[in-house]
Design goal:
This protein is an all-alpha fold and about 375 residues long. About 80% of the residues lie in helices and about 0% in strands. The chain has a domain of about 150 residues: Alpha Horseshoe (Serine Threonine Protein Phosphatase 5, Tetratricopeptide repeat), CATH 1.25.40. The protein is built from 18 helices and no strands. Helix 10 runs antiparallel to helix 11 and helix 12 packs antiparallel against helix 13.
């Protein structure tokens, strides 16, 4: 299997030997695809933006190769959690593919699926759910009940229900999807494993099963993913993260901490300390530290997370806002618990409050927790 490192070496060699323009472009696109497959979206974005500029200079705006790069860029931006940029690129991708290929073409339907995923992750879950219902209806009509793309759309809808705060409904839909995928693909298919992983993830957030069974299922889910894909695979880190999240929600903060340390070390090694998944795990660790009484350490680490997120993802990024809100909450806890907190702490809190209360969250769903919290802080500041 050709890795991104192999392709990067080939690309460098092609550049030094003045290879034909098309050969360099093809290698760059292959490199971007490999980086995306290796869960290195920030590096993929750099290559895709270069490839897109190269194609714009050389191709017709409706060239399929140009439209393919546009779609890949949207996916990479989504995986990098640069959601607003992803939505903009993928919205244009849907428009362009609809014009060039037609509304029922497979590539157009794929672009619509990518768009609703980015839209949901950006906090616009209700709009994404409407799009998911429309996409499922169209894929059923065009592709049929048992087509993999129809199954994919059903999986997207279940994940959106979870994001919308309805994990019980999501579990029901994923259980139905899992049964259908097993019927069509068999027990051992990788997509079936992925569906089991998603089901265990969301089931851990609801209380349809008791705590012991829920924890056991999440532990077994991690073991299955790690055995099938390797302990350093992104899905394995995600499965561990869900277990840590469950322990935190159950008040088992001390047990969650070593798991989070393991995830952070692994993600830092594979993805880098500034990658969005690593930043998410670091933010969760700050929450656990505060819960076990290490408030000062939690605040210092939260400040580092916010600074890194602003630099790597941008100040308006959804993940940056989540990290910023956590830092504000921790600083407020310190001020409330210590009447003699230094002027530096008060000044830090005030500056972070200014940042979050000035953030534009009007594009988020009205029931989105980030939007609600920021509006609450704005109301308190107005008093």
């Amino acid at each position: 299997m050709t890795t991104s490192d192999d392709l990067r070496r080939q690309l460098e060699q092609a550049a030094t030997t003045s290879a034909p323009f098309r050969d360099v472009l093809e290698l760059r696109e292959q490199l971007a695809a490999a980086l995306l497959a290796e869960d290195r979206p920030l590096e993929a974005i750099e290559e895709l933006e270069l490839a897109l500029r190269m194609r714009i200079l050389d191709d017709d705006p409706d060239d399929p190769g140009l439209l393919n790069i546009q779609g890949m860029l949207g996916r990479a931006l989504t995986e990098a959690r640069r959601y607003d940029e992803a939505v903009a690129v993928l919205t244009q991708s849907v428009r362009d593919r609809t014009r060039v290929f037609g509304p029922d073409a497979h590539l157009t339907l794929v672009a619509r699926g990518n768009l609703l995923r980015a839209l949901g992750r950006s906090g616009k879950v209700r709009a994404a759910l409407v799009m998911a219902d429309e996409l499922i209806a169209d894929r059923l009509r065009v592709l049929g009940d048992d087509h993999p793309s129809t199954f994919d759309a059903r999986g997207h809808r279940a994940q959106l229900l979870d994001l919308d705060g309805r994990p019980e409904q999501a579990v029901v839909e994923l259980e139905s999807l899992l049964a259908d995928r097993i019927r069509v693909l068999g027990e051992e298919h990788p997509v079936v494993l992925s569906t089991r992983h998603n089901l265990a993830t969301i089931r851990g957030r609801c209380r349809r099963i008791d705590d012991h069974d829920a924890r056991w299922e999440l532990e077994q889910n991690y073991a299955a993913v790690a055995a099938a894909l390797g302990s350093d695979h992104p899905d394995a880190f995600t499965a561990l993260g869900v277990l840590a999240e469950y322990l935190m929600s159950s008040g088992e903060w001390a047990e969650a901490l070593p798991i989070l340390d393991r995830i952070i070390a692994g993600r830092t090694s594979v993805l880098g300390s500034d990658a969005a998944p690593t930043l998410t795990s670091r933010r969760m660790r700050c929450m656990a530290l505060a819960a076990v009484g290490e408030l000062a350490q939690a605040i210092n680490e939260a400040g580092d997370v916010v600074g890194d997120a602003r630099r790597a993802l941008g100040p308006a990024n959804y993940e940056t806002l989540l990290a910023n809100l956590k830092l504000v909450d921790l600083l407020m806890n310190l001020v409330d618990s210590d009447p003699l907190a230094s002027e530096d702490v008060h000044s830090w809190l005030e500056s972070e409050l200014v940042r979050v209360t000035r953030a534009d969250v009007s594009n988020l769903d009205r029931n989105n927790q980030v939007r609600l919290r920021i509006e609450e802080l704005r109301d308190a500041a107005a008093w």
